Amino acid sequence: MNLLLAEDDPLLADALQQQLLNASFKVEWAENGAVAEYLLKKQDFDVAILDLGLPLVDGLTVLKRVREAGRTLPILVLTALDALEHRVAGLQAGADDYLTKPFDFPELEARLHALMRRGRPASQSQQLRRLSLDRTARRASIAGETLELSPREWTLLDLLVAERDRVVTKQQIVEAWGADEGGSIEVYIHRLRKKLEGSGLAVRTVRGLGYLLEATSTP
């Protein structure tokens, strides 16, 4: 997940970069609006975080120019400007979301994943790293070796794959199972983690929010 971070405060930018890297984002930092505008127009990113108070070119101008150039990537405005007129101006200029400082990183991360929802349809067969899913046969395999999955484990894996790069809540899992057995979710998550070893994928717990299927550093 490639992310552009446009933030002129070096201390905040450094802290955010570390947290984003730990959350499996690949981060490119722009310390002013001119650099941010150039990178957003020339490179492909999955999502961007844009401060409004950038030097050289302010964030609102960057946002307008990027949208005028036809760039459609999700952009989250992260700023200390919390007045209604600022939020309205940011959204009207083309921001997809608006978060004010100070903020909690779990909320920022959840918003970023929500922004990357592009309505990707879940095809009947799917390949992620070394994991293959055949939804017609309800079968999963890693490098050609079939995984032994219970019906609940299959449903959980199918949901995590369909919602990849997005946090799946416990409520979503319960609804997918069609039974009120939320207390056993951790057991199934633990089993699934063991079975996904060697797939290049892992299930991460996002504290207070749910679970996220993400690629590991090892293919």
Overview of this protein structure:
With 219 residues, the chain is α/β, with parallel strands linked by helices. It has two domains: 2-115, Rossmann fold, CATH 3.40.50.2300; 125-215, Orthogonal Bundle (Arc Repressor Mutant, subunit A), CATH 1.10.10. Helix content is 39%, strand content 22%. The chain has helices at 10-22, 33-42, 59-68, 84-93, 105-115, 151-162, 170-177, 185-195, and strands spanning 2-6, 26-30, 47-50, 75-79, 97-100, 125-128, 131-134, 139-142, 145-146, 201-206, 210-215. It is elongated. The two termini are 15 Å apart.
Number of domains: 2
Give the helix level as a range of percent. Answer: 25-40%
CATH fold name of the largest domain: Rossmann fold
Number of strands: 11
At the first level of CATH, what is the class of the largest domain? Alpha Beta
The CA-CA distance between the termini, in Å, is 15 Å
**Unreliable segments (pLDDT under 50, ≥5 consecutive)?**
118-122
Average pLDDT, all residues: 88
The assembly state of the depicted protein chains is single chain
From the spread of the alpha carbons, the general shape counts as elongated
Q: Report strand order across the widest sheet.
A: 2-1-3-4-5
Most strands sheet: 5 strands, parallel
Q: What class would the helix/strand composition place it in?
A: alpha/beta
Order of helices and strands: EHEHEHEHEHEEEEHHHEE
Query: Helix segment count?
Result: 8
Please identify, by name, the CATH architecture of the largest domain: 3-Layer(aba) Sandwich
